[in-house]
Description:
158 residues, alpha+beta, seven-stranded antiparallel sheet, two-stranded antiparallel ribbon, globular
Amino acid sequence: MASELAKEIVSMSQRRDRTSPLVLIVYSRSTRSRDIRNEQETMRVTAPIENGQLIFRVSFPAPTYTPIIGNNARDSDQVVEQTILDYDADNIEGAATCIEGYMSYRDKRDVMLFPVIGNGNLGQYPMSRWTLEENQSGKTGSRVKTLQQILSVLLVKS
């Protein structure tokens, strides 16, 4: 009886898996279609709970080109995988640094927060928007700190 109660208490204290209710979109002016919802042209950051662990999932845009490997182009029928990096929620600085590195070679540095609606799509309008200044000498650290603060917005309980 006591062991069953202990198991129930432990299971209640663990987080239940869920998808992220919010999505950060890292948007660049060089986005070809100007469609910020196009997963092939924007970086997406979410904070799902998987296996009871809160993580930051950073999804890079899916490649829309045939990469060159050595001196040979890949066969056109070969699938190029999208890069997705998962960070423990404790490593908010690592996730922020990854995003900053991606943003550092973009011509515009906007981050927008969207709700995820019932069918898994983005809401029609962003809830928030941040424009980060161009990276200048000595500014990288401050931009990483700003991104850490923005990432903390994803840490909601719902």
